[in-house]
Amino acid sequence: MSSTPIDEVVSNIPGGEETPHEYGIETLAVHAGARPDPVTGARSTPIFQTTSFVFDDADHAASLFNLQTFGYVYSRMTNPTVAVLEERVAALEGGRGAVACASGHAAQFLVAATLMQQGDEFISSRNLYGGSVTQFGVSFPKLGWKCHFVDPTDPENFRKAMTDKVKFIFLEGLANPGGIIVDLEKVAAIAHEFGIPLVVDNTLASPYLCRPFEWGADLVLHSTTKFIGGHGNTMGGIVVESGKFDWRQNDKFPGLGQPDPAYHGLVFAETFGDFGFTMKVRAVALRDYGPTLNPTAAWNLLQGVETLPLRMERHCSNALAVAEWLQDHPKVKWVSYSGLKSSPYYELAQKYTPKGAGAVFTFGVKGGYDSGLAVVDEVNMFSHLANIGDTRSLILHPASTTHRQLTEEQQIGAGAGPDVVRLSVGIENVNDIIADLDQALAKA
Ligand SMILES: *Cc1c(COP(=O)(O)O)cnc(C)c1O
Fold this sequence. Notes:
Elements: H1 6-11, H2 25-31, H3 58-65, H4 80-93, E1 97-101, H5 104-115, E2 121-125, H6 130-139, E3 146-150, H7 156-160, E4 166-172, H8 184-193, E5 198-201, H9 206-209, E6 219-223, E7 237-241, H10 254-257, H11 268-271, H12 276-289, H13 295-305, H14 308-327, E8 332-336, H15 346-352, E9 360-365, H16 368-378, E10 383-384, E11 394-396, H17 408-413, E12 420-424, H18 430-443
Parallel strand pairs: 2-3, 2-4, 4-5, 5-6, 10-11
Antiparallel strand pairs: 1-7, 6-7, 8-9, 9-12, 11-12
Helix pairs in contact: 2-4, 4-13, 5-12, 16-18
The protein binds pyridoxal-5'-phosphate.
Pyridoxal-5'-phosphate is lined by residues 103-105, 129, 131-132, 172, 176, 201, 203-204, 223, 225-226, 235, 237, 388.
């Protein structure tokens, strides 16, 4: 179950009980949450391709439904293959529990639905994945949830946007596609001053480069579609809880701190303590709205996450080499990569992502919109598509694709203006990556 304490997760590593020892992230990526199948001895996690699980007897069934016993009932809420992924990512983030779901957007929805009532509000960084800007700005208001977008480069902007109805602050620490790094520690302090949690979308950094809980974040979410899965083959999302936020410090979170009529008056934050949020997301939002991750998808993502540290190392070293090369190219106007010393975010990157500034960044081509489009048309090895975090190198012109639903002002605000080309640098040989960009820029 995702509610297993992290020390137990770690003790699932063979030998973990005898040698109390803090495992490195490379080890957790391979082992956390998994153990040989107790029935068959299967070493790799099986795909439990079943919708439902047999009850021992009527009492067992009743106590499962009352949330008095942990166990598997129905795969919309819990499944053993999905549970391994949940424990794995919770361990990588240093969190207390996690709920996996169908996509990154589903993860964002589950968090919002758990923290907000109709008429509530939240504050979000405006430097987000384009789809998140649309989800928050267009679709959430239909449910009665209002988003205040702010420029995250000055943490005080979050304070300025605060109202009584704001239930959380949301941001991408390493932002897509602007190449900016938000000062997590400062924003977390502002959130806590107002008794609300900081929610960090950690998709671009992954827990290998940054663990937002270490800087005061309370909830972390991912589009596991990207670096966690890492191979561009499976959609997924996950929400991780730190276990440190006190949901009963004020009356802002009745769903967690007050009796739940759907569960005979159960108070989630009281009964489940430091994994109350995880239980509430699973037992109410995932159950009732249903954006479940299927077990085969969870298995694909588990294959990917085992090599997360290795892949991120190569992604980062390739991205830095490509960014340095582009910076000196005569047809390139600017490069926005926080791993470059010339970046205004270099200092913050050294603090929050010291192992590397990730694989995704943008650059501006001289000649604006048309030249940007031309580069994307002329590449050979790069794939022109709307994804990031694949082993393959990917390229995109955000203004004509992912960000085309936004106004030009919003595009520029999100770092996706007309001349912007976005790269997600893959793990191929770096000379081949540079050679492909070189010939494309020559033709543009
Ligand atoms: C892709 C992405 C999302 C949305 O995730 P899906 O899995 O596509 O639903 C959210 N945030 C970031 C940073 C992303 O890159």
